[in-house]
Each structure stands twice: as structure tokens, then as C-alpha cells.
Amino acid sequence: MKVTYSWLKDYVEIKLAPEKLADLLTMAGLEVTSLEKIEDDWVFEIEITSNRPDWLSVIGVAREIAALTKAKFHHARGKDYFGKFKTKDLVIKITDKESCSQYRGTIIEGVKIGPAPSWMQKRLKAIGLRPVNNIVDITNYCLYETGQPLHAFDLDKLDSPVEVTVRRAKDKEVIVTLDGIQRELNKDILVIADNNKAIAVAGIIGGAGTEVDCDTKNILLEAAEFDAVRVRRGTKILGLSTDSSYRFERNIDPCGVDNATLRAIELIQDFAGGNIILSSFEKVKERKKEVSIELCVGDVERILGLKINQTNIKQILSALGFKINKTKQGVLIVVPASSRKDVTCKEDLIEEIARIYGYGNIPSTIPYILPRIIDAQDLRYLKGQNLNSALVKIVRKKLGALGYSEVINYSLISEEALEKNNNKRIDVDILRTTNPLSKEQEVLRTDLYGGLFTNVAYNLNRKNNQIKIFELGKVFKQDNSGYSESFSLGFAACGRMHHDWQRPDTSSITFFDLKGSIEAMLSALGIDDFKFATRASALAPYAVAFDILVGQRIIGTIGEVAGDILDNYSIKEKQVFLAEISADELARYFQPSKKFMPYSAYPSIKRDISLLIADSLEYENIVRVISSLGKAIISNITLLEQYTGKHVPQGFKNLLVSLEYGSCTRTLKDREVDIVHNDILRELTEKLEVKIR
Amino acid sequence: MSVSDISNIAKAAETDINSSADFAGLEFIRVKYLGRQGIVAGLFTDMRNLSQEERPGFGKKLNELKNSLTSLIKEKQASFKKASVIDNAFDPTLPGVAADTGSLHILTQTIEEICEIFAKMGFSVIEGPEVETEYNNFTGLNIPLEHPSRDAFDTFYLKGKNGQQKSDGKLLLRSHTSPVQVRLMKSVKPPVAAVVPGKVYRPDATDASHSFMFHQVEGFLVDENIRFSDLKGVLDLFLHNLFGGEVKTRFRPHFFPFTEPSAEVDVSCIICKGKGCSTCGRKGWLEILGSGMIHPNVFKHVGYDPKKCTGFAFGMGVERIAMLKYGISDIRMFFENDLRFLKQF
Q: How many contiguous H segments (helices) and E segments (strands) does chain A have?
């Protein structure tokens, strides 16, 4: 909304320089976003919040300035012409009574179309309007001055006998609007019509067929109050917002209909001549009973934390045009101005008082906050929405320490991206948006994979060759019982291991690097009962995948990404490792209370064994034999090396495993270690058909 | 064997020690003289052959020899240690080796920083769902469905499965974190103080300053006697902790449907210190927070008695704060996840 300094001065005495005035307005809630000097005037561009349609007018802003500066606000109603005319001569029919509560039509004959006076043109240009002719300019001028939209029809272009109907459009009814566009209407849209056609889209835009032009002699001037929701729907359907609809959507001042008409008549007579033939007024319903609000003076302090005395309060409210009907001891009965439909409760009044008093004049205080820890796990309307915060902290800290960088990807993705991850069409289980602006906003992600692949591709393309990333975020699904959103933890790793000039050998990140990091994270969470098991079948987007289990329960998947998926993302790297773990499952097994595990003060004894094993034998079986036989005295089993190649037959591999024997209570004797160690070797050889080398 | 033998041995040992060139050589000499089978140990054994009278004097000298050799060797060892650093080939300006560490996303870090300040003041950190109902996102927060105030909250609606439309309205992606206010207040009785971080969604075309997904931190405090002055005090304290004690704050009237009175909170521009620059649009001030006293209609929706309790709420955009604090000029960088970006923080 733009206003000019001189225009405001028509209504209020301003002693402040424009810059100072801009600051004052900004600090009162009318944020001045720009101040520009145009010739000898200043243009203020003000951002008006949607609750204050009254500020969408020069008069509204002037009233505010008057209240803020305690200056006199002079707003005189124009000369009352209405009394002189019979009001029933022009027939006005309102058929949709919900959508139009009052309509005033005024016929002015014999106007002379020409340019508007230069001072008016100058002001209109300053606020960004293009002058057209005196009649059109006057309606625009009045709209900006009073906030009441007006429209002038060329009377002779209406079918006679002139009868104005306010009705809903018919389905597929067509009108060419003032902007020259032919628009198809429907039953949700309100129109103004003559005997057989729509002549304007009510509250939004006039029709081209009844436009005032240089040949116009007689006009019909319209001022009406249209329903905010009806006009808003019309703008949404037509995709068209105008100065007029912008005001109707926000609720206009019901008194504005007459006030603006009188102001326009006055200007038309002065600058276009003509005679007023008649003015007809049709009102549907009694205006709602005046709202009156009871305000306890004590409540002002209760809400603001600042005592403002009753005289001050009355002064502020009166300056804003509010009536104070009765004053009991400490209680005011306040009737807001007719332009202030936004004021409905005492809190609204308190805001007005605080605004004019100045937010800056309210002190800063520190409240007492009762110490209380809300258990986020136990909130009725937030069930399952809060991951244990200690868990989140440990996961993030541990993964950071393990060299993983956290990524955050969009939860909304394109359907195409979803397909890319699975290489097949998905038709169930996704939540779709109904109103995406672009492809990238079509569906909610069902897993974290797509984002991670995109990140891998992006970084490889930028020569970030060592990639270890993780994401902790929500994934979304729906099934017949409803939708679900759950926390997921995803990992991707590929490229070179860390290397530097002191250790220049480079090696690639392997499956076991990712596995080891996940194991370390699980241990940090106090989850020890985990294992990695082969899946019965591979699962997109993996080429090979393994279940991550805690006890018998699958909590996630780890594996190597399939080549065709890598191709989908143009990832050149041959091996990309991936994992996704349900964070909700992690929370289920999380052991926040850790116990100290004593370690031995006595020297331990190390024995290395070299094993030749068949490829079909899983290492886990070897560990199981060792730990069950050595339970009492084995403190550590470490795989030192895996070797295949020369001297190792096809289908076999050689493992070098180091066993550490120790006790917390004494130094072990060589002899007792020998006994256990030999048992282990025997058992491995006999039960697992392992060759000890 | 006599005391003079001892002094000869001492001289020989000294020469040996001084001429040793490195740790290994010195160790050889140490073993030669002081080892279990070394010369000194041999002399102690030989003491058996001396007379009772000779033994104490000889023993004393022998101990002196042992002590002096031990300290000479230590000194020599110490000199080797120094020498290794002053070695000509050693270049201390060669780069140190950095460990392979990861990093937390800067948005995570910013959210943690914000929440921690409030946690110190006694606020709990609570999260809520990203898929919401129209009721919680709008109606429960006093935002009428067909009102221009909703234009500020353009929202993604979701297609539910047939028959899945909830009684409390259509499904949507929350366009702000405020629905968690509704859920939390319905779950607990006042007093309640909480901050709510999380993702929010708005249909927006993506550019340097717009993203269809971003993060907010919401917060609110409700009790029997919470006033606008408390809102000012708490947010002042917060902003001074976040941006440093020298920033100025100002509270401007604004409109939010769920608060009354409402205030927009600005801090003096942290880039130009309030002088006016391109970041603050020459105004000297940066908009940081929306806030206000919780609207009585919101209390009614959640079953709180507006006659008994009052409270304030506030909300802020995490990306905006991170962009200002770290000088990041493009919001898309947060979601590109370039490791060169991620690892900087």
C-alpha cells in the first residue's frame, strides 16, 4: 500500500519530517518498506498486515498518525446528497443475500469525460496508478483515500430499463473483463448483472462491455459491501487479485459505502460536471449489532506487565475512533470503530493500547519458570514423535567422531526420484501432495536412499572423493490403516579411505568400514546383542544386502548398491555401501545406563592362530567356538588378517586370529592357557573342519 | 683390584659415554658398564675377595661410580632427545596430519544452539509430526480457513487414501511448527515451557532465499501470570546469547492470528552493527522472530482457561539465523550437502 505525505496531510496535521514519520509508523505496526521523494511529495510504501483493511486507505493511516502524535484528525463526511432523491427509482435486486449486504447505485447524467485534475493525477501516479480519465481516476482516488472500492458503469451500455442484479454467475457464463480477457465464470462467483448479462465480477473487476470511455455521458456509480469469503473464492478461481478484491477479502468498513459515494459525487461534480439523477440503496440485513467489549483496566497490566492509567487508555482508544460507552470503576465498555472488524476481544484492545503507547516503553522482565522436565515420550498427542534425545545425541556425536558428515535432504521428492531408487514403479505406500509447484515436490520420501545417492553423485562430481555421510530424518508411508511417519537413519560410504602424506597408501572404503562404524555406534548406544545376517533375497536398491538384527528383530539393512541404481544417478564409483536403520527401533533397544566393565590389572597372554577355512564357513562360527570354550579366560578375539592367493587353495581362505587370554583376579599360568587353547584348536579342527596352519 | 681401578674405569666410561653417537650406542655402553653382567656388577662381585677393612671404602666408591655413570648416561640420553628435534632434515612446517572426522550439519548445530539457550532457562525440547491435520495447522491456531491471513501460510495438502480423511480436516504438511503448540498444550496442563524444532513445508519456487522445506524453532511459555514484558525479557536474553551481548533488539507490532498482542522482533544488523548495509536492506535492523501473547482462542481450543492463564509464543527460521550468523548467501547450500560445505562447520 502506497500513500503520499501531502495526501495524509489532507486529513491530519503532521509536524514530523517524512523519515521520522516512517520510523514512527514502522514502530506502530505499519512497516514502511520504502520512502521515496517524487517531485515535491514523499511516497511511503507500507506493508499492511492482513487484519488491518482500514490501513489500506489514506484516511486509515491518517487516523493512526493522529493517534500516535496526538494530532487532530479532520475527517468530514461529504455533503449529504442522498436525501434529495427517491431511492426506489433504480431497481436493485440482491438475490444472493449472503454475499452482498448493501449496494448503493447512483446515476449521474451529463458528465463530461476528460482528464482528471493534475493534482489528482500526480497523486495517483505517485502511488503507481496510471491515470485514465476523470471518472475512472476519481473512483480509484476514492478507493485509495477511503478504502472503499467503487466502480463506474457507462449507464447507456446497460440494457434498459436499468435494473441491477447482484447474483451468482451461471456455470460457464462468460464475461470480458476490463483487462480485455474473456473469463469463464461459475456458480461460486458473484456478479453484477443487468437484465440479461453479467456486467462486472462483484468486488473484483468490471466488465469491458460497460466500461466508461471518452463518449460516456451518463454513469452508474456502484458502492457495495460484498462478502469477504465470496470475493476471496472468486479471486482464487479466476487467479486474479485487484485493489478492489484485496480490500473486500479483508472486510471493508460498512460505513464506507455511503462515505465513499458522497466523496466521489463531490469530486465528480467538481471535475466532471453532471447532475445526480438518483441514488438508490438496497440493504439486505441489519448491520450486526455493535460489538461492545468489556475491558478491565487491571487486565492491561496483567497482559502487558505495565500499568497504564485509565485516562491514558481512554485517550488512546478515543483517538483510534473507538467509542467508550460506560465507565465503571476500573472497567471500560468499548465499541470499536466500524472500520475495525478485527477488534473482537479485550486482547485486541490491549494490543491497540500497547501499540500506541509504544512496545518500546514496555519493560523487559524475566518470568519465574517452574522447573519441570516434560517427558516427551509420554505425551498423549505427540506419541512416537520424540526420539530419545540422549540417543540422538550419542548417534550424532559417535558418527561425527567416526568420520561421517551429517546431511539433510528434502523429504519431498519427485516420483521419478522414488522410481530411480528402486528401478521399478511404485504405486502404493506413498503420500502425494495435491498441489506441488514443481516435480521435485510430488511425493514424500519413503526412505532416505534417494537423497543419499544424490549426495554421493553430487560430491563425486565435485571431486570430493572420500564420502562418508549419514542422515537422521523422517520417512513417510501410508497403508490401509493410515499414514505413518517414522525416524530413519541412513548411511552411505564410498571412495578412498582417509590418507595423508605420512601414510600415503590409499585404499578404498569397504563394506567392513561401514559395518564397523555401525557396530561402534550400536555399542555406544549400549546395544550389544546385534548381528548381521544374510538376507534370503536381495532388495532394491541393493545388489547384496544383509539384515541388521538385534536379537531376532530386524532393525535395518546394510549392503552394496546395485550397479543399475548407480547408473541411474550416473555414479562412476564401482562400490557404494549403504545402510538404513530404523531409529525408532534403535530407541527400543537403547540402553542409556551403562555399567563400568572392569579390566584386568594382570598381564595377559596372546596366542595367534592361523586357520585355513572353507569359504562357506562364516567367521561367526569360529568366534562362537572360541568364546564358548574360552569363556572364563578369553578377554579378546581379534582378526589380524585374511589371506587368499598363493598357498591357499581355491574355495578357501586363510585367517590369522589373535586370542588374548587374561583374568581380572590373577596372572594366568602358561599351563592353564595351553589346556584351553588346545581344546579350542581341537574343537575348531574337528567340528568346523578348519585346518590349523 | 683397588680404588684406583675404579677411577680408571670411571674415566674410560666417561670417554665411552661422550663419544656415543645415538641411543643405540649409548645403550650398548650402559649395558657394558651398568648391565646385570656389566663391569660395575663385576666389581661388586669381586668385592668378596677384599678384606673386611677394605670393603666399606671400596663399596662406597663403587656406589659413587654407579651413580655418576647413571646420571651421565641420563644426561646424554636427554641430549639425544633434544637433538632429534633439531635434526637438520626435520621440517616442522610440514603439514600436521588431521584426523578423519565428520561433522554435524550446520542446521543441526544451529538448532542445538538455539534450543540449548532456552533449555538453560527451563524450556523442554519437544518435537512433533510433519504430516498434520488442517485443524492443528490452522483452525486450532485461530487461523480461519478462508481468510487472507492464510496467504502467509501457503501449504502442501496431501492425498489421503479413500475414507482416510480425518474428522479434524484434511491432511497436509505442516507449514509451521506451531501445531505442536496445540498438541503439547492438549497433552499437559500449565505451567508449560517448551521449544519445538523441526522441518516445515511451503509450496515455493526454490531460489537463493526460498526453499519449499526449511526449519523453524517454535517456543512458548504458559503459566498463570505471564506478561508481554516477560516475552520481551526472555527473547532479549535469548538474542543476546545467540548474537552476543552488544546487539540491540526492538519489538514492533505485527499480526499473527494465534497471538494478541503480536510482535516482530528485530536485532541490530550483526553485519554492519546497525549502520545499514545490503544484508539489512540499509535499515540497520534484521527481522529475526515472530512472537506474541497466545490468543485466548488458542487456549480455548486446547482446553486451557484464558481467564486463568496467559502465555507467550515465538517462532524463528533456522536457515535465516544460520545464514546471518555464518554469512551463507544461498539457502540451497543447506540441502546440496557438498562435503566442502558440510565439513566447514
A: 19, 31
Report yes or no on A370 lying in a domain.
Answer: no
Interhelix angle B39-46/B3-19, rounded to 10 degrees, is 170
> What's the pLDDT score for residue A371?
83
Q: What is the pLDDT of residues A218-275, one digit of tens each?
A: 999 999 999 999 999 999 999 999 999 999 999 999 999 989 999 999 999 999 987 7
Asked if A115 and A207 sit in the same domain, the reply is yes
Q: How many residues does chain A have?
A: 693
3-state class of A622 per DSSP? helix
Name the domain count of chain A.
Answer: 5
Q: What is the CATH number of the domain that holds A343?
A: 3.30.56.10
User: Is A480 in the same domain as A535?
Assistant: yes
**Are B194 and B294 within 8 A, CB to CB?**
no
Please tell me the distance in Å from B30's CA to the nearest CA on chain A.
28
Domain ranges for chain B = 3-86, 106-342
A500 beta partners: A503
* CA–CA dist B34, A332 (Å, integer): 104
- The CATH architecture assigned to B106-342 reads 2-Layer Sandwich (3.30)
Q: Measured between CB atoms, which of B124, B129, B263 is closest to A385? A: B129
Three-class secondary structure assignment of A26-85: HCCCCEEEEEEEECCEEEEEEECCCCCHHHCCHHHHHHHHHHHHCCCECCCCCCCCHHHC
Residues with Cβ < 8 Å from A17, sequence gap 6 or more?
A: none
Residue A448: name the closest of A498, A478, A404, A409 by CA.
A409
Looking at the DSSP bridge assignments, the partners of residue A472 are A489
- Residue B197 and residue B200: Cα distance in Å, rounded? 10
- Helix, strand, or coil here: B94? coil
What was the pLDDT predicted at B330?
95
Cell of A652: 578357501
Residue A49 confidence (pLDDT) above 90: yes
pLDDT score of A330 more than 70: yes
Q: How much is the pLDDT for A426?
A: 55
Is residue A273 domain-shared with residue A306, that is, in the same domain? no
Is the CB of A366 less than 8 angstroms away from the CB of B254? no
Stretch among A48-62, B52-66, B306-320 having the lowest mean pLDDT: B52-66
Residues of chain A with pLDDT > 90, as a percent, come to 75
- Show which of residues 198-217 on chain B sit within 8 Å of chain A, judged by CB atoms: 199, 201, 203-206, 212-213
How far lies A604's CA from each of A323, A418, A656, B22, in Å?
92, 54, 19, 33
CA atoms within 13 A on the CB side of A691: 10
Q: Which residues pair with A183 in a beta bridge?
A: A175
Chain B closest-CA separation from residue A665 CA (Å): 32
Q: Is B228 on the interface with A (CB under 8 A)?
A: yes
Q: What is the DSSP letter of A284?
A: -
**Chain B contact for A386, CB < 8 A?**
yes
Helix H or strand E encompassing A331: strand A331-335
Distances (CA, A) of A87 to A84, A208, A279, A281: 9, 27, 6, 6
| pLDDT at A89 exceeding the cut of 90 | no
Provide φ and ψ at A93, rounded to 5°: -115, 125
Domain membership of residue A650 as a residue range: 605-692
Of the given ranges (A80-89, A594-603, B18-27), which has the lowest mean pLDDT? Answer: A80-89
Helix axes A415-422, A449-461, angle to 10 degrees: 90
Q: Enter the C-alpha cell of residue B122.
A: 527451563
Clarify whether residues A92 and A240 are in a common domain.
Answer: yes
Do B261 and B253 touch, CB atoms closer than 8 A? yes
Contact B103 A474 (CB under 8 A): no
pLDDT in tens, B309-325: 999 999 999 999 999 99
